[in-house]
Amino acid sequence: MLKGRLGLETARIPHTDRHGLLSLDRGNLSVEDGCLRFICAGGGALDAGDYQIPFQAVSAILLGPGSTVSHDALRLLARHNTALVAIGGDGVRCYTAPPLMPDQSDLARRHARVWADAEGARLSMARKLYAWRLGEVLPHRDIAVLRGIEGARMKESYKLIAQRFGIEWNGRRYDRSRPEAADTPNQAINHAATAVEAAAAIAVTATATIPQLGFIHEDSAHSFVLDIADLYRTSVTLPIAFEATRRHRDQPGQEIERLVRRSAGERFRREKLIPSMIDRIKELFEG
């Protein structure tokens, strides 16, 4: 676009000056007199009311359950480069989002450059992720060895965290073809992992980094999302799962997936998980 043409180069607030994410649910997002308006029924993250949304001041709007959006609202958001992400309650699912196109491509370019250097920078990044997860920098430079060490420590973590919540633990067992056949703790871990991966997907979308280019995970189309989600496996995923398992034991009539979602939502809000993930991604590519 030509500089100065129609004044559009100054019509948008740069993403560096915006204020992150705005969560809306149980309402209708529409446009009135050129302004974005959200009429909320209440009962969720917001009190009932009629809100004018400062869409030019946020990078992404997270639209939760019970909400509708008009075509005009989508058009207005696209014009001002504000992403709209459809999510489950409190970010426990990420259903869809358009690509966020920030004013700068710094993070995406660093991500691609580091990932392309398979023997140097990519391995160093994998070691950095493992250091964050394990609490120490390991001397090994073979990714297979690092994965083996992490796997062994995770087995112990499962056992210790299960004990903390008073849950009987018989090991990690999961049949992808028959997920319902797993025992309750394993089902809870599956549901909790899905919730945390959704939060990581929202963070990756918000930072415009590249989901397919993971440093530890490789084959999945959202490998980098899995890398970020795994940073929180012992601190968030497993506590959510075992807390929900304990609630299920005490309230056997409740569905385990519903209990996990509720526990995940409470923890995401309390610990501001998604902003934490965004900060981690930025820290990962610093320099």
Summary keywords:
metal ion binding; 287 residues; CRISPR-assoc_Cas1_C; Four Helix Bundle (Hemerythrin (Met), subunit A); 2 domains; magnesium; four-stranded mixed beta sheet; alpha/beta; Ribosomal Protein L15, Chain: K, domain 2; antiviral defense
Strands, helices and their partners?
Elements (H helix, E strand, L loop, with lengths): L20 E4 L2 E6 L2 E6 L8 E4 L7 E4 L4 E2 L1 H9 L3 E5 L6 E3 L9 H11 L4 H14 L8 H22 L19 H24 L15 H8 L2 H18 L5 H16 L1 H12 L3
Helix pairs in contact: 3-4, 4-7, 5-6, 5-7, 5-8, 5-9, 7-8
How would you briefly describe this protein structure?
By secondary structure, the protein is α/β, with parallel strands linked by helices. It has two domains: 5-87, Ribosomal Protein L15, Chain: K, domain 2, CATH 3.100.10; 106-284, Four Helix Bundle (Hemerythrin (Met), subunit A) (Up-down Bundle), CATH 1.20.120.920.
Description:
The chain has 287 residues and is an alpha/beta fold. It has two domains: 5-87, CRISPR-associated endonuclease Cas1, N-terminal domain (Ribosomal Protein L15, Chain: K, domain 2); 106-284, Four Helix Bundle (Hemerythrin (Met), subunit A) (Up-down Bundle), CATH 1.20.120.920. Helices cover 47% and strands 12% of the residues. A four-stranded mixed β-sheet has the order 1-5-7-8. Strand 3 (35-40) and strand 4 form a beta hairpin. Helix 3 (121-134) packs parallel to helix 4 (143-164), helix 5 (184-207) packs across helix 8 (256-271) and helix 5 (184-207) crosses helix 9 (273-284). The relative contact order is 0.12.
